[in-house]
Structure formats: C-alpha cells, structure tokens
Amino acid sequence: MKYTLLAALLALGTYLPAQAQNPIIKDVFTADPSPLVYRDTLFLYTGHDTASVQETNYKMPDWRIYSTTDMVHWKDYGTRLSPRTFAWATGDAYAAQCVYHNGKFYWFVSTFHKKDDNSQGGSAIGVAVSDRPTGPFKDAIGKALIVNEMTKDLPHAWDDIDPTVFVDDDKQVYMYWGNGSCKWVKLKDNMTELASPITTFKPKNYIEGPWLYKRKKLYYLVYASAGTKPEMIEYCTAPSAAGPWTYRGIIQENVPNSFTTHPGITDYKGKSYFFYHNGSLPTGGSYRRSICVDDMYYNPDGTIKPIVQTTKGVAPVK
C-alpha cells in the first residue's frame, strides 16, 4: 500500500504545522470584532460583509456570533441579530458591542433610523437584550437609544455609529461612540436610558470605532484613526472613564487590503488579545473584510506595545 507523506506522518502520531490562523473566520466575510469573556468562554460578536467584489460600498445585513475556549477553534452560531430586529431601523448592521450586566447580555448596535416621529433618519444606536450570550436577542426598549438629532456637532448623518460600552468597578455604565468626533454619556443601570448629558470631544487623529476598557488603574480609549493615512489604531489613557484623556500614540499600522480597521480588546486566560479586521482573504477588500487576532502586550507603565500583525495568529490556550 502506498502512503502519502501526510498519511505517514499521521500514522506516526505526528501533526503537520497548523495553517495560518489569521483571518480566524474564513467562510464568510466578517468585520468590527467585539470580544466578550463570559465564564470560561470567549464570545466574539461580529459584523457581516456581503458586498460583491465589484461593489464600492458596504453591504452588511446582520450581526454574527462565534465562540472559543482555546483561541484556535471557533464555534459558529451564525446570524443572531439584524436591523430587522428593530422596528425603527433600516439599512446596514454597522459596528456593535455586547456586554454582560446584571445577569443579562446587552448588544449595543449601530444602524440607521427610519423617518418617523422620533427621527428624520440618519445613523442611530439601539440596544438588544438576551438572557444568554448567544441569544435570542430582542429590542430592549422598542426605540433607538441615540438618534441623529441628539448630536449636533457635525452636519453629516452618519456620526452616531460604533458604540462601545463599559461597566466600571462602581457599576456606573459609560457609552462612547461616534464618527468624526467622539461622544460619550453615562447610562442608567438598566442599560437603556441616558444618565447624563452627551459630551463631545475629539482625541488626536480620531475617526471612529472607539473601544473603552480598564486595566489595573488605567482607563483606555482605543480607536480607528487617521494616523499617517486612514485607518490606523491609536489610543489615549485617563485616570477615569470620563477622562481627561491623554494621547499615547499609534499602536497598529494600516492593515492589508482594507482602508478601515476596528479594535476589539480583551484579556482571556491570562493573556491579552487584540482583535481587528483586514481585507486579506481571497477576493477580500475594504467592503469584504475579515477578522484577525494577535497578541497584545503592555509596557510596565501601562502603555501599549505596538501590535504586530501576523498571519500565524495566536497560540492555543487551555
């Protein structure tokens, strides 16, 4: 009987080196990663690009969920939410983040608003809720949390996108968001009502896609930025979730074959991970993106070391 090299190696109990991990999802185009660690599992909430190779704008019909317990093998839960979930919504499924609070999972999403008595259209932020990390999710309040008319600092209709939500140690909830400028507000404990006026500011080179988190005693605001050309990832730090923010620099250079990128950051099983998207899959591009993950490291003073983008990805964890 004639054996191939692969068969011979397997017969000896030897495994061939794993193929390049990044992008981590290869069967569909995914974007805007949002990791959430719950118990012993890392859940990943994503956007979904379906534009054709020829199209020159986004086509994003829904949001998807994946999970892992070893950072190498990913379970696909498929589509778990779409703008159709929200009776007031229309258009695409832009960046979103799911957070756990008070025994429930709140998925904050950016999409667009129908013209009605509550809004004349434009981008809007909604909230879906579930008892489980994988759903089913339903509209938590039956209306948008943020509509275009609530922020007047910029004239364009797509500035209220890309929410990031953070629950501080004292249980105060903060939401940051925005394209062109960064907005933030406190939320009530029910996660569905504003608890403060909206504050608007612009970190250095800020474009969109903020990600807010805390590590030790330092707060981080990481975002997609202009850098030397769109888009890179830059960040600020602060002594509180409300600022004041100090600019710290560029941590990720441009990504392959996509003019956008988007940060999603978490610690899991003793390691720090940086999720982002690029356009590196075959036939991929700026409107056909794919999520990657690489290791993230900090300096002793808490500043972030530059992210090294790899095709290898991260090592498995137990």
From TrEMBL:
Organism equals Hymenobacter tibetensis
Going by the entry's taxonomy, the superkingdom of the source organism is recorded as: Bacteria
- Family membership, please give it: Belongs to the glycosyl hydrolase 43 family.
For this chain, one GO molecular function annotation is: hydrolase activity
Q: What is the lineage of its organism?
A: Bacteria, Pseudomonadati, Bacteroidota, Cytophagia, Cytophagales
Does the keyword Thylakoid feature in the UniProt annotation?
no
Q: Which residues form the signal peptide?
A: 1-20
Q: Which Pfam families match?
A: Glyco_hydro_43
What name does the UniProt record give this protein?
Answer: Glycoside hydrolase family 43 protein
Which InterPro entries is this protein grouped with? Glyco_hydro_43, Glyco_hydro_beta-prop_sf, Glycosyl_Hydrlase_43_Enz
Task: Provide the alphabetized UniProt keywords.
Answer: Carbohydrate metabolism, Glycosidase, Hydrolase, Plasmid, Polysaccharide degradation, Signal, Xylan degradation
Q: Does the keyword Ribonucleoprotein apply?
A: no
